[in-house]
């Protein structure tokens, strides 16, 4: 538990959240009854399931989700075709009033998605008038059944700016723009949101994907009565994508907006990584779909213990702390090289290191079949470290830097006599135009 020495509260858009942990907009935040239970469990705020104005009927496809298991790891991802809220707007607004009445210290963020300019304004005003502390503009659902909505808006940057500006001119509460990851560079649409008046950015919504095809009917899942579609992937599988976009935006001096990180967060470590890369708050859906609201207890405890161990009193002081270490690859010091090293006293003799080194690395291991032990030929080791990834004994294989005088041996060619037969001249540049620009 946090204890008096640890302060998990965070300032975000003028409000104090008692901790950085929020429900993201999804089935986990679909009603006041659910959200109230999540607040009781320890979550500090909610982004309510995206509101709909009742103008167009929302019908969820059935079934609406599919699990993405991999090997014996369950739910490394989740595939969903769920739409925005199918509840009447009135019911959702009554729930807002309930939450603000009974949980005044928790933060209520209303997620909205309009299908026209007027509708964005209407939903924004209805949310503000019924107690929402902030708005999140959903520019990012990848599988809306209504043409031209969701991430189609998030990919048409001028529409992001236009709808954000509409909302900005309608309400006085802060506005968060929720971004789609189904683009290459998030800084650009985030700048459009900023120009429209967004006060913060949240990212990411689900990643467009196909995670499984039925092998009998050949239909992607979820199979909606014979029809599959590209739809939204969430969960641990997408965390690297979320972290990368958050880091990019946090490092963008022109953007300079507070961030709310989303995507594959299940543990306090996942949450902390998002915070270290610049997220002030973090949001969770699939982790709750997998384990329930109670995961917040581990998040609170794990983060508090970490802070205590590191002597950091305020979580606010962790926001963005890892950013200075996120560089581009041309900053690597390529003169420094290393190899893997083995603590063979702990080796169980499974031989997996040998197999992967032979088939996917530098053939730097010999196998002592009698004693069932690997032997490293140091100058052939590529330091790819894949042997350590497959070794079942934690930290048996570690990385070791070698002296600068040490040299790696090049991979030998099979038949040196063939050298005279190759059609190959050394490259000689005739122009230096383009310099060292990366063309990959
Ligand atoms: C079933 C489901 C429904 C969702 N519905 C919404 C929604 O209505 N509005 C929204 O902004 N995001 C919605 N999301 C996206 C989540 O809020 C979140 O951005 C995404 O799932 C990534 O986070 P996660 O890996 O923690 O699930 C939904 C996600 C799932 C899995």
Structural notes for this entry:
With 440 residues, this protein is α/β, with parallel strands linked by helices. The chain has 2 domains: 10-325, TIM Barrel (Alpha-Beta Barrel); 333-412, 2-Layer Sandwich (Alpha-Beta Plaits), CATH 3.30.70.20. It has 12 helices and 18 strands. It has helices spanning 32-41, 89-102, 117-129, 151-155, 157-168, 187-196, 239-250, 268-276, 286-291, 295-310, 352-360, 386-390, and strands spanning 10-12, 15-17, 21-23, 45-51, 65-70, 73-80, 107-112, 134-138, 175-178, 200-203, 207-209, 231-234, 259-262, 279-284, 338-342, 365-368, 373-376, 397-401. The strands form 5 sheets. An 8-stranded parallel beta barrel has the order 3-4-7-8-9-10-13-14, surrounded by 7 helices. Strand 7 (107-112), helix 3 (117-129) and strand 8 (134-138) form a beta-alpha-beta unit. Helix 5 packs parallel to helix 6 (187-196). The chain starts with 9 loop residues before the first strand and ends in a 39-residue tail after the last strand. The model has no long low-confidence stretch (mean pLDDT 95). It binds flavin mononucleotide. The site of flavin mononucleotide has 28 residues, from strand 4, strand 6 and helix 9.
């Amino acid at each position: 538990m946090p204890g008096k020495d640890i302060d998990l509260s965070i300032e975000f858009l003028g409000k104090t959240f008692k901790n950085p942990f929020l429900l993201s907009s999804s089935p986990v935040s679909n009603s006041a009854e659910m959200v109230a239970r999540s607040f009781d469990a320890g979550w500090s705020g909610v982004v309510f399931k995206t509101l709909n104005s009742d103008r167009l009927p929302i019908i969820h496809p059935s079934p609406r989700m599919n699990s993405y298991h991999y090997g014996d790891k369950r739910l490394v991802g989740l595939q969903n075709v769920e739409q925005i809220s199918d509840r009447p707007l009135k019911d959702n607004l009554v729930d807002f009033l309930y939450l603000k009445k009974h949980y005044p210290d928790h933060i209520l963020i209303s997620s909205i998605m309009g299908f026209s300019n007027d509708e964005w304004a209407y939903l924004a005003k209805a949310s503000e008038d019924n107690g929402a502390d902030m708005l999140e503009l959903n520019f990012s659902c990848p599988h809306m059944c209504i043409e031209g909505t969701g991430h189609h808006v998030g990919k048409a940057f001028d529409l992001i700016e236009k709808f954000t500006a509409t909302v900005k001119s309608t309400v006085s509460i802060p506005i968060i723009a929720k971004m789609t990851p189904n683009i290459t560079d998030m800084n650009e649409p985030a700048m459009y949101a900023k120009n429209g008046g967004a006060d913060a950015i949240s990212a990411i919504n689900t990643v467009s994907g196909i995670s499984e095809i039925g092998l009998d009917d050949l239909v992607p899942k979820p199979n909606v009565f014979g029809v599959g579609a590209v739809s939204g992937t969430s969960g641990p599988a997408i965390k690297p994508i979320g972290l990368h976009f958050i880091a990019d935006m946090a490092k963008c001096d022109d953007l300079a907006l507070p961030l709310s990180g989303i995507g594959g967060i299940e543990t306090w470590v996942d949450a902390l990584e998002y915070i270290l890369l610049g997220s002030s708050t973090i949001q969770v859906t699939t982790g709750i779909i997998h384990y329930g609201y109670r995961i917040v207890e581990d998040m609170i405890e794990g983060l508090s213990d970490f802070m205590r161990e590191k002597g950091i009193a305020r979580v606010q002081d962790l926001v963005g702390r890892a950013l200075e270490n996120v560089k581009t690859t041309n900053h690597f010091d390529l003169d420094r090289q290393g190899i893997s090293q083995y603590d063979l006293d702990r080796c169980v003799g499974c031989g997996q290191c040998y197999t992967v080194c032979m088939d996917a690395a530098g053939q730097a291991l010999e196998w002592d079949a009698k004693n069932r032990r690997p032997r490293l030929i140091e100058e052939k080791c590529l330091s790819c470290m894949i042997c350590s990834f497959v070794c079942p004994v934690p930290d048996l294989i570690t990385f070791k830097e070698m002296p600068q005088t040490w040299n790696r041996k090049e991979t030998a060619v099979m038949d040196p006599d063939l050298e005279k037969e190759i059609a190959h001249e050394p490259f000689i540049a005739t122009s230096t135009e383009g310099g060292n620009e990366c063309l990959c």
